[in-house]
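Hi everyone,

Forwarding the result from last night's run.
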Amino acid sequence: MTRTWQVARALMVAGLLETVRRKEVYVLLILSALLTGGAAAFRVFGVQGLEIFVKDVAFTAVGIMTTILTVFIAARQIPDELQRRTIYPLMARPITRGQLLIGKWATATLTAAVAFLTLTLANTLLLASLGITLKPIFVQYVLLKLLGIGWLCAFVIALSVYLTPPATITLSLILAFGSGAFGRLLLMAHWEHDLSVLWLNLLYGILPHYDYFDMSKKVVFDWDLAPWGVLGAMAGYAVLSGTAWLFIGWLRFRKQTL
């Protein structure tokens, strides 16, 4: 475990430096500046009575940008190492493929989490400049979103060892943005069955549920705090499901010809 942590820590530092080199941090700063500039327009017209609309737009934008960045960051972790042949010096060291996979997941999760927190901070400052306050459920929103980022990185990295990078990105974005719709369509298509039917529950459970980690609408409409037991259950789901996806990826990666 200590060795795995050392590998993950080294890869995380390298991943953050790579993100800076790719100018992705600057993209986030530009997006943050655009959000802040948009505040000036609302000040001209005033935001009295438009608080819900402003919050909805802001959190929707943060959610979309975070999801896209997370998918792109996670999808390139393994393929980039193979394409640039930098994976060979890594594998020449006493590092197992399982440790490398976990290290790449940790790198993607940390990088995407930093991106999300940067956007969230800019979003919070923007709303504060307009005199819009956020309720305590905002803290739960941030925590649940961070869990979702870790889960999504595991899912995308697992796909990346089976599919080409374009296919991984396309399928991941479809499943990430459409996960809620897919679940509702499944239930609607079988509305005549009782929800306690075993096969329907198993099929619904197998589907990726990135939508579980989104509390943005509850923040927008100022809900009360959700029971912390629910967040604990979601943390358990993120750990178990994310571990399962990484295990599926490892089954392929451990036998993959490099």
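The CA atoms of residues 95 and 236 lie 28 Å apart.

Cheers,
N.
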